[in-house]
Design brief:
The complex is a heterodimer. By secondary structure, chain A is mainly alpha-helical. Chain A has twelve helices and two strands, in the order H-H-H-H-E-H-E-H-H-H-H-H-H-H. Chain B is built from nine helices and ten strands. In chain B, the strands form two sheets. In chain B, strands 3-2-1-4-5-7-8-9 form an eight-stranded mixed beta sheet, with helices on one face. Chain B has a two-stranded parallel sheet with strand order 6-10. Classes of the chains: A mainly alpha, B alpha/beta. At the A-B interface, helix 1, helix 2, helix 8 and helix 10 of A face helix 6, strand 10 and helix 9 of B.
Chain lengths: 235, 232
Amino acid sequence: MDLGIALSRPVQLDCRQDILLEASLRRRAELRRSWKGFVSAKTLENLGSLAPEIESSLSEQNAVRDWRPVATFAWIHCDASFSDCLRLIALAANVEYRPVDVRPAGFSLEDLKKRSLADRLTALCARYRCPLNIGIPSESDVAEELLRQLMVLDRTTLGGGAECDVDMVLLKLNLVGIRAMITRDLRMLDALNYFYELPRRLWTSLRANPRLLVFWLCIYAQLLRTPDWQQCRLP
Amino acid sequence: MQVAVIAGSISAGIRIAKEIEHIPGVDVSVVLCNVGMRSPLLRWSRELLLALGSLKWATFTAKLCSYVRRGRIFILRRPLEDPTSIQYLRSLQFDVGLHAANVIYREATISAFRMGILNAHIGILPKYRGRSVAQWSILQGDPTGVTVFFIDSGIDTGGRIVLREFIPSKGCNDVEALRNRLFSCADRLYRQALEALGRPEFQFERNNISAGKRYYVMSKMLTGVVNEILSN
């Protein structure tokens, strides 16, 4: 290691880990206190029987499940629907899945961009019927593209107060959050941080899809309690 | 070598031009582009006032007059990617452009310069592409620094790296101080890059983008973490 590299190393690794962990737990405590400010009473009401589970997950010390083993499979299959799978993941419940050797045909990002917004949503929900598949290594390009769209296009649109496709933005936030759970990629966690930090007035539009909104918050809450982000070092 | 500083402000253009004008064989011009498409008169009056306020007005004005007298200041009235601007840039036959404007370049603009446009990126390529890269480097315990490379129309994906310099973060107590330190090295590194390009034995380093990731604007939470790391 040359002198330049040595001098530029700011602090010891464990110190950085501690600071990051502390900041995450502070944010988790803040979310626990303030989530009802984001999700209105009416939104909760619309969730029906799901509401108590969500309330308990966000207000109390939520469980965290380690999904990293999923990344070792070529693909996984679940019998549950997309929505049910997402609910189980968001609530850190058990997802009944089985590994399969053959993954579906490649997903062309170029084709995806050419589709209408509604078609894109359907295509993503169909491919990631078991949303854990977004964390599989072969899906890295799709995950990168979703992250790029969130942090470049959606960030600008939503941040500027313009109208955006709320369902699509929330779906991307959920998928990127799940990818973060599996890969421990800090950039993916930070996309969720960024959207969480948007001014509260911009959250009004996000309430249009209460299920995806609360699932995203539950996934975010789990990520904030994930202790080992130090393993996200890039190759 | 005909070099043009592509600047969004007169002060940035003149500052960089001053740094590189003494390199043997380099002929410097300043191309001013109106980034926000605001009234040029208003913008430049404001800049002159700021220069007066900073008490550097005598040096600044003398330098500016010298460039104007020699016909080395060019003003683009239309956006940089406008065909008229590209045509104009082509007619000026520059070899190298130096990026000093807050714009993203399209392929047609880049190819208006024989060798291309150099960018002083405040991160170490190929590992750190995109935004907030100085902060991300600190967060991940990697060295901070500046990379000078020829851009393409992607985000920090241009294949030819001219030089890289590791610049320690020691002594910077927050992100702003760190960014200022890195940005303050850009003019010198542009000079060193042009000097390197003039050497017959010079060889580019390849910007292998598969060896890195693209980063995005950092959240307030992680920026706070980086500030705390730096202040420790």
